[in-house]
Design a protein that fits this description.
heterotrimer; A alpha/beta (about 230); B mainly alpha (about 270); C mainly alpha (about 50); A: about 230 residues; alpha/beta; five-stranded mixed β-sheet; globular; B: about 270 residues; mainly alpha; Alpha-Beta Plaits; 2 domains; three-stranded antiparallel β-sheet; 13 helices
């Protein structure tokens, strides 16, 4: 009896895993993050700046998925050319001031967008490093901004209060934004902290940095992209 | 790579790391830890209610039949290497360890130990859970190159724990379930009042002890059928020569051994 | 344990459990579970 059940359980697990993997490609883009992350990676391959990064060769496998994921693109997401993913959004910052992505990106050669949450220890621990980095990047015409993934409503004083506490305690002076509707598709990530590198036109450059890093590591990544 | 759809509003009943590429639901222990480490200390009604419901409906039947990591341990035990027999005295004391894991690492520390920034740390998930390392950590590191620079001492520690767990599962039956698993510890509290239970027909029982011999969790089903250590695998039911044991659901017998029960006449 | 007492205990706990679940879900706790299961903190999975 046990053997039969074990076999059945194995088959169920395999079926569930297969269902999880395949369903993420069939579901509409709004729900599937896997698809958009594939499209984001794949679209960066042809960009000339990518040749400086050793990782660019590895982006080849997802390339074949690029055509279908582009057709399935979320309406709000603009695509400049087939080359790269360009993002554009409107949101508010933690003080409630409206922000347009074009305003921020156009001022800097590279903008680092750091996705974090008040529930995420490593995100908070790397924030002092990001503040140090902000100072260093200013000289290079680059900037750091944060997006707080669990503060959905700027009128929620409890959550904005937590975010404010963390920000002041970490000594952070860069801007922090409230997530916008299409953020899951624009900046797909499965783990936080994740940091995206955006150029002055809003294109996502290179690979996002996943996990907490030190200021030096981030600076090296930015330097590599600036070449 | 990970499923990010609406099913992750719900927890699965067994240990199942939500960072596993195959996971469709959230891990109940992970969800509980996350609720307890929130900045505002609130009673986690949703997650706790779910755990309570699962426990009072099935108890450790979930451990025996619905937990993937339990299955992994069972498969590892099938590898033909010499098995270790832990002396009963030590074994019985060690079984209490999982309650300490539950109270200290899953509930206590996450709730009360705060970092200087005021955030809690999910101690069990972060420092101990081998399930997350096996189902999430290993596949992710293999499949997702972007994660590799983030790995450090913590990952090496978790891999060591996973290795210990895998090796000990080959020589001891379900060591994680017996000694460490906080979810099993929680569900075990509801064994006696759960809807799905094991029943002993005392009239039919011939007290031969075959069931105890068949039990890999060292339970005596004829004396303590709904013990906190029983994972309700049903081996005792299958082994009983008198057909005295059966599963019951809300008092009704279901899934008996199919053997004809000897009706013993008790003279009072 | 008497059969009737046990059954009452079971029903009470089950009712409490379902009540808590619904209460928590209405309070947005299910959304929190979802967020932390799809935007996973690296610490929670032992990857630092």
């Amino acid at each position: 009896m046990i053997k039969k059940w074990i076999c059945l359980a194995c088959i169920l697990c395999l079926a569930m895993s297969a269902a999880a993997c395949s369903s993420s490609k069939q579901e509409p883009p709004a729900v599937s993050e896997a698809e958009t992350s594939v499209s984001a990676e794949a679209s960066e391959v042809p960009e000339p700046e990518e040749s400086a990064l050793p990782e660019s060769e590895e982006n080849a496998p997802p390339e074949s998925a690029a055509p279908e994921s582009e057709e399935a693109a979320v309406p709000g997401e603009e695509k400049a050319a087939e080359e790269s993913v360009k993002i554009s959004f409107e949101t508010v910052d933690l003080e409630g001031k409206p922000v347009r992505s074009e305003e921020i990106f156009s001022e800097n050669k590279i903008t680092m967008v750091n996705l974090w949450g008040t529930y995420c220890g490593p995100c908070i621990r790397e924030m002092p490093d990001l503040e140090v980095l902000r100072g260093r990047l200013e000289e290079k015409d680059c900037a750091v901004i944060g997006v707080i993934l669990d503060v959905w409503d700027v009128n929620d004083s409890e959550m904005t209060g937590y975010a404010d506490e963390i920000i002041s305690q970490a000594g952070v002076t860069y801007r922090n934004l409230i997530p916008w509707d299409s953020i899951m598709e624009d900046l797909p990530c499965e783990f936080i902290p994740t940091t995206f590198f955006i150029d002055s036109e809003g294109h996502i450059l290179g690979e996002a940095a996943v996990g907490a890093r030190g200021a030096d590591e981030y600076e090296a990544l930015v330097d590599a992209l600036l070449e | 790579m990970l499923y990010g759809g609406p099913l992750k509003h719900f927890c699965v009943p067994g240990m199942n790391c939500y960072s596993c590429p195959g996971a469709l639901g959230a891990c109940p222990v992970g969800a509980l830890q996350n609720a307890l480490t929130a900045r505002r200390r609130r009673f986690p009604f949703y997650v706790f209610g779910y755990l309570l419901a699962a426990g009072v409906i099935a108890g450790r039947f979930i451990c025996g039949w619905l937990c993937l990591f339990g299955l992994v341990q069972e498969l590892l035990y099938k590898i033909p290497v010499p098995k270790i027999r832990i002396p009963e005295k030590i074994d019985r004391k060690l079984r209490y360890l999982k309650y300490a894991v539950l109270v200290v690492l899953v509930i206590g520390l996450p709730l009360f130990w705060r970092s200087p920034y005021g955030s809690g740390t999910p101690f069990f998930c972060k420092f101990l859970c081998p399930v997350g390392t096996l189902e999430g950590g290993v596949p992710l590191v293999l499949l997702n190159r972007a994660l590799r620079p983030a790995l450090g001492w913590l990952f090496r520690w978790k891999m060591l724990l996973l290795l210990l767990c895998v090796l000990s599962s080959m020589v001891i039956y379900r060591p994680f379930c017996k000694y460490i698993c906080p979810l099993g510890a929680f569900y075990s509290l509801f064994q006696k009042i759960s809807v799905v239970r094991i029943e002993v027909n005392t009239d039919a029982c011939i007290r031969c002890g075959t069931c105890a011999g068949a039990c890999a969790m060292n339970v005596r089903p004829d004396q303590a059928p709904n013990s906190t250590e029983c994972i309700r695998c049903g081996e005792c039911i299958r082994a009983c020569p008198a057909g005295a044991l059966s599963f019951s659901c809300a008092g009704k017998e279901i899934l008996g051994s199919g053997k004809k029960q000897r009706k013993k006449v008790t003279v009072k | 344990m008497k059969e009737k007492q046990r059954k009452t205990g079971t029903m009470l706990v089950l009712a409490a459990a379902l009540g808590m679940c619904i209460f928590g879900a209405v309070n947005g706790e299910a959304e929190e579970v979802f967020l932390k299961a799809v935007k996973i903190c690296m610490e929670c999975i032992g990857l630092g």
